[in-house]
Amino acid sequence: MKTEFILRCVKAVQEAIDTHQADIESLDREIGDGDHLINITRGCAVVAAMEETLRPLTPDEVFIRIGKKLLSSIGGASGPLIASFFMAMGETLRKQGAEAITAATFAPAFAAGVAAIGQRGKAGLGEKTMLDVLIPVAQTFETLAVQGDTPALCQALRAEALKGMLGTKDMLATKGRAAFLGERAIGHIDPGSKSCQVAITAVCDTVEQAIGASKTDANAVA
Predict the structure, then answer these.
(1) 59 in Cβ contact with 50 (< 8 Å)
(2) Considering only CA atoms, which of 20, 72, 31 is closest in space to residue 176?
(3) Beta strands in the chain (DSSP E)
């Protein structure tokens, strides 16, 4: 994975969030602050507008630059959390020193980003937040990344994200606005978990499309 592919994933995530706007907005009206979709779509637009600035950078620099930009561009609770995620990923990749990212090198960087969200938001698994998707996905990612089977990895990450998102429905919220609703939040999916599930699915789809395209090109050459 190089910078050009990261930019493809950014576009894919933006398109996926746009496609699922109605679902995310509905969930946020039920138990959120009502501004989650606004902040997420604004963040996607901000990052997409950075494309030409990001293109000449190395992957670690790309993630750090995205994080800093989001920190100054997105309001609400989402901004600092997502910014921390990207900056922690970038810093971890910088320590690795690799110009191209593999699944094995990206998995610990992703896990570091997820840990940064937990530290910033003082939250963990089972509290009806985006971490109920991100933590199990990060764990699965680290477990399977070393096996080298990218299609199987993508399938597992999509399934884990969906499972985590659906699992928030029956949870009692202990963080954010939903925590003030008490048991009334039970029966509703957390909007942040939905956004994360949509984004992870979009990235996995993009990875699989790239693999399919490379196989087609190889067959054409053969």
Answers:
(1) no
(2) 31
(3) none
For the stretch 82-107, pLDDT in tens is: 999 999 999 999 998 866 688 999 99
- State pTM to two decimals: 0.91
CA-to-CA dists, residue 32 to 70, 103, 197, angstroms: 20, 34, 17
Minimal CA–CA distance to 129: which of 191, 199, 77, 41? Answer: 191
Residues 6+ apart with CB under 8 A from 10: 44, 47, 48, 51
Q: How far apart are CA 85 and CA 47, in angstroms?
A: 14
The dihedral built from the CA positions of residue 26, 32, 33 and 37, taken in this order, carries a sign that is negative
* 40: its two tokens: 């997420």
Task: Catalogue all structural domains in the chain, each as residue range(s) with its CATH number.
Answer: 3-221 (1.25.40.340)
Instruction: Return d(Cα 179, Cα 184) in angstroms, integer.
Output: 9
